Amino acid sequence: MKRRTRSHRAPPHDELTPGALRYKGIDKKEDIMNVKKLLIPMFALALGTTVAAQAQDTDVRAAAEDSVRQGVTINVVNNNWLDMRVYFIVGSVRYRLGTVNGLGRQTLKIPASAVPSNGNDIRLVAVPFGRRSATYTRVVVVYPGDELEYRIESRLALSNLFIL
Hints:
The chain has 164 residues and is an alpha+beta fold. The chain has helices spanning 18-23, 28-70; strands at 72-78, 84-90, 93-100, 105-110, 120-128, 135-136, 140-142, 147-152, 160-163.
C-alpha cells in the first residue's frame, strides 16, 4: 500500500483557503463571474415580474375606483302633471336628488359617497309640489355604477322602480 502524501489529502470542510478551494476544483474569480452571470438575469426576471404585477394591480384598482366614483344614475320619467321633488332614503336620512318637471324626464345621480362599494339599501321618494302625498319605492340594494329607472305615474300608487 502506498502512503498518501499531504498534497493529495482533501482539506477539512471548515478550511476555505484559496489553496483548498483550488484543490476542490473551485476558483474564486471564475465562480464569482458564473454566479454574476446567473444572478443578473434572475434579478432582472424578478424585477420585471414585480413591475408587471404591480402595473396589473394598479389597473384593477383604478377600474374599481372608477366604478366606486360613479355613484348611481337614476333616470326619472314623470308621467304626472305635477312637478316632483325626488329624494333617496338611506337608513332614516332623506337626501334630495333634484326636481323633475310635470310630464318630463330628468337624469339624477346619487353621489358615490352615499353608495359604498359593497352596496347600500335605498328607497326613492317622489313628493309633488303643493301636495302632502308622496310615493315611496320598495327598498333596493344598489352598487356603484348601477342605473335605475323611476317611473312616476299620474296615480302615484302605480309608480315603479326598475333596475337596468
